[in-house]
Design a protein that fits this description.
Length: 233
């Protein structure tokens, strides 16, 4: 899954001084939900470190439809996949705070701040790994496997103190576009997962994972509780 889960505590504790220096001319920027941070084709003037909130990255296809290509939360670095122009549009799906760093300073900053450079390299590695996993999922996984993998990925990004509960801040349509499924399929499978006792939807945007092992088995290509699966089919 191309879900860019960052490590904001690492950036704050290890490279905080470098970030403050690099972004001194452009303080923290606050973006409201449904507001864009940048659009596909815009000149890449800055990269952005997400301090709080969630964003979605998407591209506009030839026929005008949107294809969600990823989600990112606190600790993620946005704009690394671009060169002179942004290849994706970035829209906040919750209230978001970001720390801009001028793109022109990135090369010199990485030379003078090797710890920050290491963190950025780790972020690139996470995004590459997530993109490869997404390619494999789109071509090989069933709808249930895709959704199980997605929920596990989002749950793994939640704060360790939240135990098995996590936010699902994105709309079901965003999930459907990202997973390559129909909206009706995502909604139906979410209801099935809840009926089988694997998850509990506390609200539309908040989920509790009850049977992680079942979802892991399903995501890895196994059968999660075969009797229940046959009964539901």
């Amino acid at each position: 899954m191309c879900i860019a889960g960052g490590k904001i505590h690492e950036l704050r504790s290890i490279a905080a001084g470098a970030i403050e220096t690099a972004s001194s001319a452009t303080p923290t920027q606050h973006v409201t939900a449904q507001e864009h941070l940048f659009f596909e084709g815009d000149t890449r003037s800055h990269i952005y470190i997400v301090e709080s909130g969630w964003v979605k990255l998407y591209r506009t296809l030839i026929d005008g439809q949107r294809q969600v290509v990823g989600f990112a939360n606190a600790g993620s670095v946005l704009g690394l996949e671009s060169d002179a122009q942004h290849v994706n549009s970035c829209e906040a799906i919750t209230a978001v705070s970001v720390r801009p760093i001028a793109a022109r300073r990135l090369d010199s900053l990485c030379k003078t701040e090797p710890v920050l450079a290491e963190q950025i390299l780790r972020q690139v590695a996470r995004q590459l790994s997530a993109a490869q996993a997404q390619l494999a999922a789109v071509g090989a996984q069933s709808a249930e496997q895709k959704l199980a993998t997605f929920l596990l990925s989002i749950a793994d990004l939640c704060d360790e103190t939240c135990d098995r509960e996590f936010d699902l801040p994105m709309r079901r349509m965003d999930m459907a576009e990202f997973l390559g499924l129909r909206l009706e399929t995502v909604s139906r499978k979410m209801s099935e997962f809840q009926r089988r006792g694997w998850i509990k939807l506390i609200s539309l945007y908040h989920c509790r994972m009850l049977q992680r092992g079942a979802l892991q088995s399903l995501a890895q290509g196994g059968e999660a509780f075969p009797v229940l699966l046959k009964r539901a089919s």
